[in-house]
Amino acid sequence: MGVPPDSEPVKDNTVLVGMSGGVDSTVCALLLLQRGYRVHGLTMWLWDPEGPMENPCCSVNTASLAAHELGIPHDVVQAHDEFRRLVIEPTLEAYRAGTTPNPCALCNSDVRFRMLADEASRRGIRYIATGHHVRISHRQGKAALFRGRDPNKDQSYFLYSVDQENLRRALMPVGELTKQEIRSLAWELGLTAARLPDSQDLCFAPSGVAQLLPRTSPGPIVHVSGHQLGTHNGLAHYTVGQRKGLGLRWPEPLYVVRLDPETNTLVVGPESELYGRRLRAANLRWPEGRPPSRAFRASVQVRYRSPARPASVELWNDTARVRFDEPIRAIAPGQAAVFYRGDRVLGGGIIRGQSPSTYIGGQSPGCR
Q: 228: domain CATH number?
């Protein structure tokens, strides 16, 4: 995404920093100031359900205070309509379809990052920055995305879909630090953000996304053996791997194994039924512009808090078919599958389901 012809001339040393009011984005702006950049803060106000300019994720007031303490200009851009269209509505639709989406991945890449880049282009600003815990390598006009240095705070899973053009413009200084180092920097300068708790996910649904859906139809809870065990309260209240809240009596612990929206059935079974070795992912994105090859080895992460596991990946049109070396737990349609080589993000896509066993080393179902 270049600078539009009718925008201001590019300000080579100016960076537009997305500020939520938290310590990460505040220290991001601080570090860039220390490195000699002209820093301009921007808060994209995405969700304001109860009136005050504050939610569990962001706060306009604390972002403005942080900018004031740093001595930088700060603006606020309303983006409620875009947030609803690009995050809330797709999330609710996914739940209605019986999948478990990751709205934070949609928000971080398709809204926060993309809209920050669009706003920077409109203002004629070349660089953008956020407080995400990721690292970016810039070499020979290309950019590569890496995990953040702090493994407990790494957010690269959420940013696999950022395109190369915007990645080349991005500066991510906090990704080189641990969370403790970030807070220590803020404390040393007496910044208010040092005393604030970390932001919470799901600003638009702190009680769970299912609470935003109209009351959904109850349906059968069926054991993998075929026996009906009870009635569920609506598929949107469940996710693959869930154990609590089923309300079932059975000789062994039961887990959600599958959601079947066509028959409105919740399928449960023992934990052993949660493990699988194959998945199919679609809507693929490649931060470096293209995949490493049509078939490659990678470590694949299927949930934000799950470890990446070694796997073989084959690409067929816009679909990735993945076979893990060992069975992994709770592959949930709707979540992202992100491909890594070491700490480097190769790309990723949305899990559509588990794949048949014949695709690796044989004829792909997509080629029949």
A: 2.30.30
pLDDT at 90 over 90: no
Question: Do residues 150 and 235 share a domain?
Answer: no
Phi, psi of 209 (to 5 degrees): -65, -35
Which helix or strand (DSSP H or E) is residue 275 part of?
strand 275-285
What is the Cα–Cα distance from 206 to 312, expressed in whole angstroms? Answer: 37
pTM equals 0.87
Catalytic residue among 57, 104, 203, 367: 203
| 202 is a domain residue | no
Three-class SS state of 5: coil
Distance of CA 222 to the CA centre of its chain: 32
| β-sheet bridge partners, residue 360 | none
284 touches 319 (CB < 8 A): yes
Q: Domain of 221?
A: 215-267
User: Mind listing the pLDDT tens digit for each residue in 280-325?
Assistant: 999 999 999 999 999 999 999 999 989 999 999 999 988 999 999 9
Catalytic residue among 57, 58, 104, 107: 107
Looking at the fold, whether 255 and 284 belong to one and the same domain comes out as no
Which residue type does 266 have?
L
Specify whether 236 is located in the same domain as 136.
Answer: no
Domains identified in the chain, total number? 3
Phi, psi torsion values for 262, nearest 5 degrees: -65, -35
- Known catalytic residue: 57? no
Residues 94-119: tens digit of each pLDDT = 888 888 888 888 888 888 888 999 99
Predicted local confidence at residue 7, as pLDDT: 35
> Do 355 and 252 fall into the same domain?
no
